[in-house]
Design brief:
- This protein is an alpha+beta fold.
- Strands 11-10-9-21-22-23-24 form a seven-stranded mixed beta sheet.
- The protein is about 20% helix and about 25% strand.
- The chain has nine helices and 24 strands.
- It has two domains: about 5-130, Purple acid phosphatase-like, N-terminal (Immunoglobulin-like), CATH 2.60.40.380; about 140-505, Purple Acid Phosphatase, chain A, domain 2 (4-Layer Sandwich), CATH 3.60.21.70.
- The termini are far apart.
- The structure holds fe (ii) ion.
C-alpha cells in the first residue's frame, strides 16, 4: 500500500468537500481522491441524553498518512438521507494523534437516532448511525463483547449482533491482541510483529479495522468500551510486566499503547483531558432503566500475588497469602472511592457493572487464578459492599477475559448464602479457549456457577425491561468459518429484586 505524499494530501485538502454537499457531488470527488481516507470506518460512543462522541481516523487505504494536519468536516442529521442536518463543523486531523478525529457533541434531543458522516481529502465517509440516550426507557437491548483475536477467528459474531439492532455495544477489553499464539491454527495473520511502540500499536489497530464485520458493528451502533491487558501486554498490572522490565521502560510502551487505543476508538476526549492520565472509568445511563458504571481493572491494580517483584503473570495459586492481603487493589484508591460514591447515589433500576475479570470465586483443580478478582480477595470484598448498598436495586456484573461463558451467583460470606448479585461472564468473540483441564468440572467445584461453557466463542445479548433482564448467550457455529452463524446456546432471566439467574432453556 503506497503512502500518500504530502503534496497529494495538500492538493486534496484544498478541495475539501464542505458540509451540506449532495451525495452526487460526493461520488464525483471520491473518484478523484488519491486513496481511501475512510478505510478504517467510522464509530460513535458514550451516548448521553444530549450527545455522543463521533470517531474516525484518516488513512491511505488503512496505512498511516504521511501528511501534516488535514481538515475534516462532519455532519450530524436526524435522518439517514441528511435532509435535516442538525450539527456540522470542522476539526483538524493531526499527525500527533495519528490523524484520528474525535467530535464530542451536546445539545441534541434525547432518545432518538442520529446519522453522521465525515468529509476529508475529497472523500465522504460511510454514513454512521448512532443515538442519544433516552431520559426514560421502557426497554433496552445491549450486546456485550470481549476478547477478539484477529488471527484465531473471524468476527462473524458481529454480524449476528448487528442484526439484533442493539441500542448499545459494550466491549469489555482485549479489543486487540498484541501477541500471536504459535500453537493455535490461524484463519489470517497479523502483518507485523508484536507492537512495542506507537507506530506498532497503530499498525495493530489498523489491522483490526480492516475487518468488515467489526467496522460495520462500529458504524451501526454506539459503543461503550474499556480495556483489559492485551491492549498493551498480556497480564500486565499497572507497570508490572511479563518480562519484569524496568517500570520506566514499560511505562513508555504502555503510554504508546494507550494513545493508540484512544486514536482508534470512540472515547470521549474530555475523559482524557490531562495528558499522561488516560481515564476510562466512568458512568453511563440509559434512562432510569440502566446504569452502566465502567471500570478500568488494569491501569491501577497491584501486581498479581506471589510473583517476583515487578513481574506480572496469571497463575493458578494455592497457599499464597498475598491473594487476600488487604492492602492490595484491583481498581486503585481513587477509582474505588469513585465507584462507591457512584453506587451510593445509584438510581437506575438495573446496575450493569462493565468490567474485565471474573468476580466470583472460581476454584480450579490447581487453585484460583491470580489475575482474576480471586487474586484480589480483599478488594473484591470492598467491591461487593459497594454493589450491595441499599441504593443499588439490582446488581449485575458484566465480565470477560476468560474466553468462556459463565453465569454466577455472587454471594457474601457463607457458601450457602443467598445471592446478592449476578455475574454474566461473556466468552471471547473470537480467540483460543483454555484446555479443559484448566477448569475441570467447573460446576461440580463451584456451586454458585449456574452455567459454564468453556469451548465456544460468541457474545451476550441482554434485553432489559423494568421487570427483568432476558439474557441470550449467543455462540458462533465455527469461528474458523468466515460464514459462521451465531445461535442461542443458553438463555436465562434475572428478575427485578431477585438476584441470581433463572434458566429457561
Ligand atoms: Fe482475552
Amino acid at each position: 500500500m503506497s503512502l500518500l505524499t504530502r503534496r497529494a494530501v495538500m492538493a486534496a485538502s484544498t478541495g475539501l468537500f464542505l458540509a451540506r454537499a449532495t451525495a452526487t457531488q460526493g461520488l464525483e470527488i471520491r473518484r478523484a481522491a488519491p486513496a481511501e481516507p475512510f478505510a478504517m470506518g467510522v464509530a460513535s460512543g458514550d451516548p448521553s441524553t444530549d450527545g455522543f462522541v463521533l470517531w474516525t481516523r484518516l488513512s491511505a487505504g488503512g496505512a498511516s498518512l504521511d501528511a501534516p494536519a488535514v481538515p475534516v468536516a462532519y455532519e450530524v442529521a436526524e435522518d439517514e438521507a441528511f435532509h435535516r442536518i442538525v450539527r456540522h463543523g470542522r476539526r483538524a486531523a493531526t499527525p500527533t494523534l495519528g490523524h484520528s478525529v474525535h467530535v464530542e457533541l451536546s445539545g441534541l434531543r434525547p432518545g432518538r437516532p442520529y446519522w453522521y458522516r465525515f468529509h476529508a481529502l475529497g472523500a465522504v465517509s460511510p454514513v454512521g448511525r448512532t443515538a442519544t440516550a433516552p431520559e426514560h426507557a421502557e426497554r433496552a437491548r445491549i450486546a456485550v463483547s470481549s476478547c477478539q483475536h484477529f488471527e484465531l477467528g473471524w468476527f462473524s459474531a458481529y454480524r449476528d449482533m448487528v442484526a439484533a439492532q442493539p441500542d448499545l455495544i459494550v466491549q469489555l477489553g482485549d479489543y486487540i491482541y498484541e501477541n500471536s499464539y504459535a500453537q493455535f491454527p490461524k484463519v489470517r495473520r497479523f502483518d507485523a510483529p508484536e507492537p512495542t511502540d506507537l507506530d506498532g500499536y497503530r499498525r495493530r489497530h489498523a489491522t483490526y479495522k480492516s475487518d468488515h464485520d467489526l467496522r460495520e458493528a462500529h458504524r451501526l451502533a454506539p459503543w461503550i468500551v474499556t480495556w483489559d491487558d492485551h491492549e498493551v501486554e498480556n497480564d500486565y498490572a499497572d507497570l508490572a510486566n511479563l518480562k519484569g522490565l524496568d517500570p520506566q521502560v514499560f511505562a513508555r510502551r504502555r503510554a504508546a499503547a494507550y494513545q493508540a487505543y484512544f486514536e482508534h476508538l470512540p472515547v470521549r476526549p474530555s475523559l482524557w483531558a490531562r495528558p499522561g492520565e488516560p481515564r476510562l472509568y466512568r458512568r453511563l445511563a440509559w434512562g432510569d432503566l440502566l446504569s452502566l458504571p465502567v471500570l478500568d481493572g488494569r491501569q491501577y491494580r497491584s501486581p498479581q500475588a506471589c510473583n517476583p517483584p515487578g513481574q506480572s503473570g496469571n497463575r493458578a495459586r494455592r497457599d499464597c497469602p498475598g491473594l487476600s492481603a488487604p492492602g492490595r487493589t484491583m481498581l486503585g484508591a481513587a477509582q474505588e472511592a469513585w465507584l462507591d460514591r457512584t453506587l451510593k447515589a445509584e438510581r437506575g433500576r438495573w446496575t450493569l457493572l462493565a468490567q474485565q475479570t471474573v468476580v466470583a470465586p472460581i476454584e480450579t483443580p490447581d487453585g484460583v487464578m491470580s489475575d482474576q478478582w480471586d487474586g484480589y480477595a480483599a478488594a473484591r470484598d470492598r467491591l461487593m459492599r459497594s454493589m450491595t448498598r441499599p441504593s443499588v436495586r439490582n446488581a449485575v456484573v458484566l465480565s470477560g477475559d476468560i474466553h468462556a461463558y459463565m453465569v454466577n451467583d455472587l454471594r457474601i460470606g457463607r457458601a450457602d448464602a443467598a445471592p446478592v448479585a449476578t455475574e454474566l461472564v461473556t466468552t471471547c468473540l473470537a480467540a483460543s479457549h483454555a484446555p479443559p483441564a484448566r477448569y475441570g468440572d467447573v460446576r461440580a467445584r463451584n456451586d454458585h456457577v449456574r452455567f459454564a461453557d468453556i469451548e465456544r466463542s460468541g457474545y451476550t445479548l441482554i434485553e432489559a425491561t423494568s421487570r427483568k433482564l432476558d439474557i441470550d448467550l449467543r455462540a458462533v457455529s465455527d469461528q474458523a468459518d468466515p460464514k459462521g452463524v451465531a445461535q442461542s446456546l443458553a438463555r436465562c432471566v434475572i428478575e427485578d429484586q431477585r438476584p441470581g439467574a433463572q434458566f429457561t432453556v
